[in-house]
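Hi P.,

Sorry for the delay on this. The queue was packed all week, but I finally got your sequence through. Input first:
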Amino acid sequence: MKVLAAPVLTTALTASLSAVPAAASVASAPELSGSAVYADGANRISRYAGGAWALVAAPGAMPQFAASPDGRKAAWITANGQLRVKQGAGTRTVATKLQGGTPCLTPVWSADSGRVAYVGANNTVMAVDADGTRPRRLGVTKGVCHLAWSADGRFLAGYTGEADALYRLNTRTGRAAKAKGVKWVTHVQSLSPNGRYAVVEVPPNPDQLGDGSWPASFRPLIVDMVTGKKARPPVKGRPLGAFYLADGRLVARVSGRSYNTLVVFDRAGKEVQRIAEPAKARNQALLQVLP
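Then the structure:
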């Protein structure tokens, strides 16, 4: 897989970061506080904010889970195919008869933390409100694994069960298109606000596809799903992941000896902030970066 050289990489990254509606003002965006949502090796989902940890949910042994962008809700699919949502002290089942026991078939939250999308029968992507009301069909796609949802609500992206292609589903038309330039893919972490760019993980070869579990860390690659162009976040050290915020900023996670660091880029691709993660999060999966 070809990755762009440095001058072109910067241009491609800037393009991906600027892919946000003009109404959003990054200049006025406040600095991030360091709050985030993590999942540990036992699939316990916890929110870190204000120097303190709070358990959000403990879905159990199967890692088919997702944390909401507001950091206060979690959704997961049980081994017997129930989609459950936890908010505060309450847990409710919002969909049934789904495919449980398949790690890559994770649900995903909308940007406003109000809806959950998931894969139903025959590769049909459905969405339901967090309270279990208003189920509706979004479309059909072969890209059913590790769904990511753009902040504008228009696109979802995921990879195939064979890990050999990335697809983008248009929720307005209900149709999906295969992304260019991706031969193997094992994770979709995040989409740019307009859904054109995806943060993904690609394996070095098809013999290292894994089992589809949510990775505690991965080497992030930004893919333009229309042109197939690719770029790496321009951070020094060992990157462990990357995440788009709803306002278009990109947060890259970088490995450290005692703790990891979150490096924030504005829409122009300029580094604007560095945040030290808590040491406890060092070997945990990053699920959400909170404002």
